[in-house]
Specification:
GO terms for molecular function: kinase activity. This protein has three helices and no strands. It is mostly helical. It has one domain (about 1-60). The longest helix has 18 residues, at about 1-20.
């Protein structure tokens, strides 16, 4: 499990560094997001759907 945790943390770090380059966006079914909190909302979504994100990361 320790290896899985480190892999997850490394993947999250990689994804969050990429998020810093993302501008304004709209998610399907949602209105405009507050840019100052967008990264927190994205991380919250990822945490709630961890298995889905893990599968997505592995498919890249």
């Amino acid at each position: 499990r320790g290896g899985q945790t480190k892999t997850w943390q490394k993947s999250m770090k990689s994804l969050t560094s990429r998020l810093s380059h993302v501008g304004r966006c709209r998610l399907r079914g949602r209105g405009p997001r507050d840019e100052s909190h967008q990264w927190l909302e994205t991380l919250n979504d990822m945490a709630q759907n961890r298995l889905q994100w893990r599968r997505c990361i592995h498919s890249l």
